[in-house]
Write the structure tokens for this entry.
Amino acid sequence: MRTKFFRLSFVLIFVHLFSFGQSEDMARIDGARYIPLYGRDSTVVEVKDFDLDKYPVTNEQYMDFVRKFPEWQKSKAKKIFADGMYLRSWKDDFELNDDAKLNSPVTYVSWFAAKAYCDCMGKRLPTMDEWEYAAMSDETSKDARIKKSYNEKILSWYEAPRSNENQIGQNPKNYWGVSDLHGLVWEWTSDFNSVMLSGESRKDQDGDNNLFCGSASVGATDLMNYAAFMRYAFRGSIKANYAIKNLGFRCAKDIETP
């Protein structure tokens, strides 16, 4: 009897250790080396295994957060950390506007606010390379960027109005089991403006001068490059205290080894 007890205990401990650090609302992303931007002009980067929220943070989740951390309530957040647009879709500290939904992604949140939320959850914002890596898959492929249909779908979303008002989970989950990386809102990353601070991804040939001019768009080899131009242009145009209508976030987490 004692032997059976110890065997059962060992199995339970093993299962606990194996699953430690990954919650049900997160997906495991197997890392790899990949090219995050302009095909042959970009630098290969390595992404390690990490966990990523399956969905963007919602209004309801963020409301729970500001109840516990009142310094991030709409009426109390310092302007140095969140500009005057902060939580504009909320009537007050704990009530949404009439056209907002609890299960829609929270928007009008600054980078500082998003980082604070993830920190308080024992998580962090994903890096830009992690986000791009997870977002380059469709429902069946780890890297769908070479598919014309995949890129056309992303570009059509960029033109769609008021997508930020939709609820989470209405877009299909991708290869990793993550939803809404495209088709809902733009998302903060921990190093959102790193490309604008250096020309590293283009080998520092011309800095950022050619990233957004007409020649850059015309010279793009395919739709993948143009979609990437738009994401990097948006990230490079904002500051950490900006709160924007179609900008939300989700959290990531390092994989904890037992």
